[in-house]
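User: Teach me something about this protein's shape.
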Amino acid sequence: MNQSRDSHGAVVPIRPLGNPCGSDLCLNGVHIMENIICMKWGAKYGANYVNILAGMVRRNMTRPYRFVCFTDNGNGLNADIEVQPLPELELPEELPERGWNKLTVLGEKLADLEGRVLFLDLDVVILDSLEPFFELPGEFRIIDDWDFKGKIIGNSSVFRFEIGKHADVLDHFLTHGEEVRATHRNEQAYLSHAIHAKGILEYWPESWCRSFKRHCVRRFPLGYFFPPIKPANAKIVIFHGNPCPDRAIKGFVGKCGYRAVRPTQWVADTWRESCD
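Assistant: First, the predicted structure itself:
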């Protein structure tokens, strides 16, 4: 059995997850292992977010896959989650959090992974099968950001790429970081423009990835009386800004009172670790 190492250097086995009797994908008789990854750094998200994400992935994949978390702290992660060290990226300490660490997955190598990778943010809620995200053609796919329609800005909560094919994007950031940060507010803005410049930027179908804040939360004052809408045909719901999934489950009211979220049962039913 192949082996890897966790964030503390301990050897852990690489176990292909998924249903071995399900719809395995083969090419010329050779089995294809899909890669699904996430990243966790700092203290914003606890280990439970990774464990819950892994559980949602498990329920929505039948073909074998590797689920890998790149992190600076693997404490509390379930034993069936493959843990890899967070790739190093030197940034000025005074910088606000803008997701720049995510660019490190574009390096020439990414641990010992090979082939296609589906990146998922920790705070997404998976409603349906993830397999179409691997089946849709295209060299690079990302969400068309709802807040910047008509502009070249994707939302990198869900994006797919091939390992080693976009190391130039990371290399440019490493050598021109100050210039990039002056031009682009965050990682996903830079990433989108850089991939677009290569002529291969494509978006997921609009209905696949929906925003909880934009497409589910009811407008004022209806949010005080009715729970958020579960979007039809959506495969993944993206939580950007407030609330996060655990707050949506409990209920949430924004600072000025205009964004009210009643306790959301469909999020509670889906955002969970168990397979029951």
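Now, about its shape. The first strand starts at residue 3 and ends at 5. The chain has eight helices and 16 strands. If you'd like, I can walk through any region in more detail.
User: That's plenty for now, thanks!
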